[in-house]
Amino acid sequence: MPVEHARGLFKLSEALIQNSSSIENEDGGEDEAQDLRDEAEVYLLRRDEGATEFGNEDVYDKWVPIFWR
Fold it and tell me: What pTM was computed for the model?
């Protein structure tokens, strides 16, 4: 289940980045998004030690069954 959680963290970080770019005075949104993305990378690396690309959801999708996405 950690990889499923990692995918959720990744998607949440994308939403926070999108939201913080549309709201000018939002403090901490990008920092929180980066923290979530870093945590997602840790979970992915636990599953796939050879992972080098973390910037899109396809990397996470190959480990998550289609009916859980």
Answer: 0.79
